[in-house]
Amino acid sequence: MANTGTKDISYEELKALVGKSPNLILIDVRSEEEVAKGHIPGCTNIPLDTVETAFAMNPDEFKAKYGIKKPQLDAPELVFSCQTGRRSGLAIGKVQQLGYVTARNYTGGYSEWSKKEGK
């Protein structure tokens, strides 16, 4: 299986980190338009087609463009999300090739988050 290294994260696990963990780096890979309609609090929007370029940037460029510190390769709580988990899975494939081995996929995506949060 191609994504052997990918660890998924559940709604409950992510909910426990959002707004509480200083280590959480949540990347939403949907389009800017989608994110504008609703997103998980604290996420950083890096659309799927720009993920590879973004994570290959040097740390200063990354911070200037996205407003957050570029994640370390072994970031303990690097989570990718999208609408339903498909695009975030693709994004993880891209960043794993760059060495981000701990990246996790929130497979429920914003679709599940918004249902559970009653939005």
Overview of this protein structure:
Helices cover 39% and strands 13% of the residues. With 119 residues, the protein is α/β, with parallel strands linked by helices. A 5-stranded parallel sheet has the order 1-5-4-2-3. Strand 2, helix 2 (32-37) and strand 3 form a beta-alpha-beta unit. The chain is globular and about 40 Å long.
Keywords:
119 residues; Rhodanese-like_dom; 6 helices; Rhodanese-like_dom_sf; five-stranded parallel sheet; Rhodanese domain-containing protein; alpha/beta
Task: Compute the number of helices.
Answer: 6
Helix content: 25-40%
Q: From N to C, what is the helix and strand string?
A: EHEHEHHEHEH
Strand order of the largest sheet: 1-5-4-2-3
The secondary-structure class comes to: alpha/beta
Q: What gap, in angstroms, lies between the N and C termini?
A: 35 Å
Poorly predicted ranges (pLDDT <50, ≥5 residues)? Answer: none
Organism: Oreochromis aureus (Israeli tilapia)
Domain Rhodanese: 20-118
Protein name: Rhodanese domain-containing protein
